[in-house]
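WARN no homologs supplied; continuing
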Amino acid sequence: MAAKESDPFLHEMDGQLAGWAEPAERLRQALAKDELALFCQPILELAGQVSFPMAEILVRLREEEKAMLPPGEFLPVFEHYRLMPDLDRWVVRRVLQHLQRGSRIARFSINVSSQSLEDAAMPKGIGVEVMTSGVPGTSLLFEISESDLLARLQAAVRFATAVRSIGCSIMVDGFGRRAASFAPLKSLRPDFVKVDGAIVRNVLAHPHAEAKLKAILRVGEVMGFHAVAEMVEEQDILTRIKALGVAYAQGFGIRQPHAIELVAA
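OK structure emitted
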């Protein structure tokens, strides 16, 4: 018990986990009793007939008095207890159930944790969920962060190859956050690359940000991926990135996240 009490991680999380005597068991209970909720943020197609062909899935945790905890308050706990694969499987299952009932948005992107990338059983589990649901795999798009792509390239490629075999697509999230190399993209062959918000927010004010975005777009033309601009919050930025040839955009200036039933049902 003393070792547990001295755990610096749990000490840091005391404020967020007030009343959680056994955090790991609390999270397992939340999964078993569906105490989490799916939110989503639509992604706008800048030149197309369907305004919002896809949306990113976000997760909230229901707490007492119907409060919704944001992911920053509970995802670190899932990670600490190595429960991210359980959460990711839960998200896939619930998204497929939503699609079964009918959805105005036909495709959803789901963030894949580093623990799930390294879980060799994860792609098979996703395949079983897709086959059981009867929903086509093309309805799912999995987001792999740039940091995971750089640190876990083999695991990312293995995961991408497996889920592509059932029709799913791949997006690299937060691209350009670091002094990005395009070499990992050649191995992964993503369908979409989400340009980091720091580049997007500065595209009007800083020439180097626009130059970086243009470079990503040129590489996309060669490799065959579409660019998604994240964190679009101003109309002037939206107008500029559209003129540059960005295919998709996402951000509070377009649509804020809401419960999936309010956005896509």
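The domain at 23-263 is CATH 3.20.20.450 (TIM Barrel).
OK
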